[in-house]
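stage 2 :: seqdesign
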C-alpha cells in the first residue's frame, strides 16, 4: 500500500499508468512490476507499507491472517495471584525506626 503524503507522481503498474497527487492511495497487487516517477517540481513524499502472507498451521495452507505477536513482557500472573486473592492485596512495608547517633 502506498499513500502520497505530498507532491505528484506518475505511477505505472503493469500496463496501467496513473497520475496521483497529495492524498492519493494505491495498492500494487503482489507479483506486479511497478514504477513511480516524481513529476512535481519539489520532492514527493510517499508512505509505504508491505504485508506478507503467513501460513497459520491451525487454518491450513494459504491463510492470510498472521497470528498475534507475543509481547516480550510477561503479562500473565499465576493463579494464586488472581485479582481479589490474598497475594493481590497491598501489604504495607514494615516501619523502620530512625537510628540515633
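stage 2 :: out
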Amino acid at each position: 500500500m502506498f499513500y502520497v503524503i505530498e507532491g505528484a507522481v506518475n505511477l505505472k503498474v503493469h500496463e496501467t499508468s496513473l497520475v496521483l497527487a497529495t492524498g492519493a492511495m494505491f495498492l500494487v497487487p503482489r507479483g506486479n512490476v511497478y514504477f513511480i516517477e516524481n513529476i512535481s517540481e519539489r520532492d514527493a513524499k510517499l508512505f509505504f507499507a508491505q504485508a506478507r502472507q503467513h501460513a497459520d498451521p491451525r487454518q491450513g495452507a494459504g491463510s492470510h491472517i498472521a497470528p498475534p505477536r507475543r509481547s516480550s513482557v510477561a503479562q500473565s500472573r499465576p493463579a494464586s495471584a488472581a485479582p481479589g486473592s490474598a497475594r493481590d492485596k497491598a501489604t504495607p512495608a514494615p516501619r523502620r525506626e530512625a537510628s540515633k547517633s
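stage 3 :: structure notes
- The radius of gyration is 28 Å.
- The chain is about 0% helix and 30% strand.
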